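INFO batch 0412 | record 1 of 1 | parsing
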Amino acid sequence: MKNIICYIITVLLLMTGYDANCQSGQSLSLKAYAPLPIGVAIGYFPMKYDHVYDRIVSTDFDNVTFEYALKNGAVVKPDGTFDYSQADELVKICKAKGLNIYGHTLCWYQNDSRYMASLKGDSAAIEHFLKKYITTTMQRYENNIHAWDVVNEAIDSEGHLRISGPQRPDYFYWGKYLKSGYIARAFSYAHAADPKALLFYNDYNLETESAKLNAVIKMVDRLKQEGVPINGIGTQMHISIYTPDGGIDNAFRKLASTGLLIRISEMDIKVNPSNDPDFVLTKALEEDQAEKCRYVLQSFFKYIPAKQRYGITFWNVGTKDSWITIGGHRKGSPCLFDNLYQPKPMYFAVLDIFKKMREEKIN
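INFO prediction complete | emitting tokens
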């Protein structure tokens, strides 16, 4: 009888675009086996209108990060007023489903409102805005969001403060106007707004750019010495199947040395990093992707002590909503789920690691 019920459930889920595994009478669920918080980045529209997407998020993950709804560009209108309507609605939807929410992001050089340009480089006005934005946003959600990316990607590839780069309407280089001290002040503003919240610095390519990694470690150590309230570091892990394993190990070892909480904050794995327009995804590439994912998680659990692990978040649910394939207009499949929201080998690699850790009672 149990097998018949499982078969019926599987057929129904396949009809709605989501497969299931009836071994032992249980459907697939990453969060059911995860030894730590397991999250995913979500978008407003698919979470509200796509029921398959919604079900995957609710079934497999225990926490979410809003991909865009809490960024400066989503909240700050051209006249400088704040509009939290989408974020408020997402918070309501996610809390009703029992999902925790990770705050992302309070200060980043991308996805900023056009209002920032109207401040015309006035450092005092920019500083006033930064404090107001951090304070208003964190206090609005202090009962629903208990951890935040305070500063995002403040260090460039050479290990220097990011003060310049591409000139686009939504790019605003905080370091150009506020110098390096703005990082510490942003964390202080965040702590004053919500003293109970955990505060993180978040960055990318720490596994491939040694100058950046070393600069981040140096910056964090300095903040700690100065008594700045920083609790953790997020390493994004936007990587590819060709990312060197040694760089991954090195990043985790050095991040662990800070003594702070460490999280994988935005993981996806490119299978077409050269952006070949004629790219065709093969089973072999999917298996390579799964093995790279397996290696990242094994390295994380090996080098980050249990007391310092603050979760793993995957960036986007599937190919259909990935920032790489949609926003970047690239061919590929960087997420756990494919274009039909079917779980890929990468998904099963994660599930297998979690199951083995539970079976073998590994911390």
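INFO post-check: Residues 29-359 form a domain with the TIM Barrel fold (CATH 3.20.20.80).
INFO record closed
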